[in-house]
Amino acid sequence: MTFVLLAVIVQAQGLPQEQFLIYNAQIVDVLTGKIKSEMALLIEGDQIKALGDFNQLSKDIPQSQQLDAKNKFIIPGLWDMHIHLEVQGLEEDNQALLPLFIAFGITTVRDCASDLGETVLKWRDEINAGKLFGPNLFTAGLKLEGKNSSWKGDLEIENETELNLMMDKQDVWAPDFIKITDNKLHGELFLKSIQAAHERGYVVSGHVPIDLTLEEMVDAGFSSVEHASYLNRLGYDQEEIVAQLKAGTLTNAQAGALYKGIFDQQKADRNYKILGDKGLYVTPTYIGGRQIAYGDEENHLLDSMMTKYLTKAFTAEYLKRIERLKNETPEQMKERKQTYQFNISQLVHYQDAGITILAGSDGAVLNALVYPAQSLIQELQIFQDAGLKPIDVLRAATINGARFLKKDKEMGSIDIGKRADLVLLDSNPLEDINATTHISGVFTKSSYLGRADLDKILSDAREAKVRLDKSREK
Hints:
The structure is a single chain. This protein is an alpha/beta fold. The protein folds into two domains: 3-76 and 414-471, Roll (Urease, subunit C, domain 1), CATH 2.30.40; 78-404, Alpha-Beta Barrel (TIM Barrel), CATH 3.20.20.140. The chain is built from 19 helices and 20 strands. The strands form five sheets. Strands 3-2-7-18-19-20 form a six-stranded mixed beta sheet. A five-stranded parallel beta sheet has the order 13-14-15-16-17, covered by helices on one side. It has a four-stranded mixed beta sheet with strand order 5-4-1-6. The relative contact order is 0.16. Mean pLDDT is 94; it is low at 1-16.
């Protein structure tokens, strides 16, 4: 099936649900961590209708609607649980990259708010309506912040009245979750923001203010920490530090210095367990730290996503970061590497403590060298290198995200009645998560895309980059 035909099918309205059969497949069950005994999968429209035997399921299915998987492995479509579609003026650049996620096997993304929030909400609705081709898109739209934050496009508040007004706006926009950050939002109002969003039925995620404990945030209705470095505070006397901050006997700078002292792993593990028992999720976003820490060892100007698919305007910040890295001393780069290695060392501790891990890249215009789509695949490899079993890495990029967004009854695993977002891999991801770099095909939006179709998406992305760059030449 060609990419052109896919677009026709996606946009078709009122047509009968077409059936598609995939057989001779090794179907990965992310719930049990095993290969399913069934080797055939029948899809009707965009849902999995049956799992079973080929001879039973193939009745009345035309040959043209059957695919011999040749004993390859099928996994649920991957989820990137932290991206940003951002920067006003780069709407075309961001939109042109949406199909790229599909080519990398990523059928669902969670946009964690930006200055393009209202536009992204429209893209979400257009994707759901079949008017725009891209991954399933869940978004926070615009995030809550304090007055005069450094971020553009925030919903800025400085009291409860403004908080309630902004939440009324959110109710109209209907974001899929609420994101709250701490650039200018102090702890007391941050906590009230969590409570307000939670009381209105939203899932709440965000950063961690220095003057709040994670436990009080979770107790107020906070569901996920974005960026695992915030959890490092749990290896220190966080409660005492926060108490002194609230009492005014400690400054933020002094608190920051205390958090650079000797890390107590046993204390951290006890605190991780408390939060794991309370149901906390974390999206580590390690790839950004890795790209910067090892920026002195890699040449991103040669044969990278930046040169192939991303426009000059999109990568302007990337180039600035590359130049800044050239001025860093060997000691500074060594320290960056040590910090990165320490951060990823905590991943297995989160897992053991019951904190649910979400795979997210933080890919964005403003996050230098964190390439859209590809960076999620790199994040999965980091998880495995850090000690997670391949099945736990796969869960972090599939069912865990669905559970976080309360969509696990309809997405996130290969089961009857769930959405047919599927990726066909050449090798077994339960043995090595690197299998996700070898994609044979993707089924999504009621259609199967073979390797040639995925390559066409990549080619279209390259052409879009050239076209947009040329349109901006003076």
